[in-house]
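FAQ: What does the model actually see?

It sees only this:
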Amino acid sequence: MKKLPQINRRDFLTLFGLTSAAAGCPAMASAMQASDPDKQYKTFQATCSMECLHCNLRAYVKDGVIEKIGNANAFDGKPCARGLSRIKWVYAKDRILYPMKRVGERGEAKFERISWNEALDTIAAKIKEAIQKGGSESLLFTSASGNMDSLFNPSQVAFGNYLGGTTRTAGSLCCSAVTATMMPMVGKRYVDTRDTIDQAKYIICWGNNPLVTMQAYWHYYLKAKENGAKIVVIDPRKNETAYRADKWVPIIPGTDSALALGMIRWIAENNLLDTKFLQEHTGAGYLVGKDGKLLREDPQDPNSYLVLDTKTNKLARHDAPGVVPQLQVKENPEYKTVLTMVLEQAEPWTPEAVEKTTSVPAATVKELAHDYATSKASMIVNNMGSFQRTEFGSQAVGGQYYLAFLTGNIGKAGTGICDAGGAQQMAKFGAPIPAPLEKPKKVAPIPTAKLGEYVLAGKPNKINFWYTQTCGIVGQWPNANKVIEAVKSVPFFVVAESIMTPTATYADILLPATTVFEYDSVMAGTRNHYVQLIEKAVEPQGEAKPDYVIFGELAKRLGFGDRYIVPVEQMIKNVLKPSGITYEEIKKGPVCPVKGPWIPFKDGKFYTPTGKAHFFCEPWAAKGFLPVVTYRQVKESPVGNPELAKKYPLMAVQRKVIRNIHTSFQNNEWLDELFAKEPTVQMHTKDAQARGIKQGDKVVVYNDRGQHPTVAIVNDDILPGVLCLENGWWMGQNGFNSSSVLTNDTVEILGTGTSICSTLVDVKKA
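And it is asked to produce this:
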């Protein structure tokens, strides 16, 4: 293994020590690039393909070694400390260099080196054995945030389809609630508005901390403030963004939909609805019958919604020429409008009622509603927000979209809901590997939150074989101790990984996977507005192979290699083809599928079949839930479960931190020198005093699911009764463990995601 020159460590630490790592350090990349003339290096395109913003990178190589990482010229955001430190993944001291098989107990990290042929032959044999015993559905394949480029995860999905259909997980670790809301309301997922943040006049960062989670775009927020924008943060904790905002609004976890409904009530009551927008661009005027279902002109035409025409006072199809729908219908026993249904749900939520449920003062509720509705351009930022990682997170997201629809704050510069959208929302892209000729069976997935429970119980299928790639199953997924039990229970467990992670220590066969600088690929992702070529910058360390090559080798052994194996350049072209972007174009640099600032719904058209935004979510009704946003009390909370709260009276939420993305980057030596090596828990002074805890004390946060040793941060910058835990710490890291041993594994009702921010705990001195 070639040694990484130490000057890069010195430059990295010096630059980040002199500048603000917390702010994302926009000058960092430029400084790194400017340290030596570029002509000394060969340069290669890359991307930070973690579950973040997919920042475009450039690798600078000299004598076959990556010397530094810089920013791709086309991308105006700058990579943060994590992206720039990815050099250390290539040359990590705990890099997995060779295939290995377990010789100790699972979790002991005792392995012996084997050949690739032995590893692949063994895995192929175990796959065949598992299928023979329990069918292809007894195979479980998992992947998540470790690598999100356009070849890695799709190659795993394709491999499972060629096997006949395998078990996978459903629901994101972070944002399933958004998916469950946006798809029926606007017809597409991840439709963000980051390009015009700087043009907003009023910005609500709702359960979101962009200074940490959107570092590359923080300069947009600074520019907005320079332009006179007011920034408000709604969060139980005064987070990093809140310190730089105009107002911090603390809120009880899981009550965000009550606040949204209260704002909606006040806006309607004060005649601040954008009537024209509602009539022309939304389904607010669709009629709902006595049975609670939408009325249609033709039952066979799902888009033939009926409205009451204001001109004729007669029922008419919503899209008939000249029809202007009545937004509210009074005193008609046969039907009412969707808007009426929405306002009925908002009616109980007076400012005083909101205050009682959420802790947000009544005066603040009015202020938020007024300022959002009357500012020239208002934007809500919910990107990866903790508010949605609750049992009813979809209702909170829905309330945010309702606010945008009702006030017309969507489809214009400086408005909308700023989420985590990217190139996939701007253009269509294809699959890298052709589908099998025989359609795979539909296999019921495992909800992400219930991974441990379902595998242990054999739901929906008994798992005989488990394959995971670049994914922190152990220590990241909810109720981590149960996940570990599940991993131990499966007959055969395979891990493909670059470094020795806690998950890797449990593998029966451990495969060395390449890092992002050691293979060719493409990123047409969900986080970045650019399509970026990923170029092989250096030879893989040891015997590491790309995941798609590993699957190709397994495909040969399982009899479908002739169709599954596709040359990497062709895979890239397959991904690009539907978009119209060519391989030759991205070889020159990152390409954005659209020109100019991206303003979703600028033309007033949404991605739904009707082209209108929908308040009424029929998929929700199909699952047995009310089809409009309502407030529901989370069960694991002092109000939802008073008996459990007697034992565990504090509500715990999770926060993302600068040093890692989920469990990734926790082992990085350079980041260890910049950031604390121990996890912390933030708690209010009153809660600390009641337990004899002081600032800096070693404490243990605990509940029936597990115990999390950590260090106390005591201040008044968090609501009393709430603790804030750090997400992503490894099991056993520096003598600590993951906070995920505590987290609630309840499934978010509509998005099948996690409810980790609805967790009851207590804390004591260690």
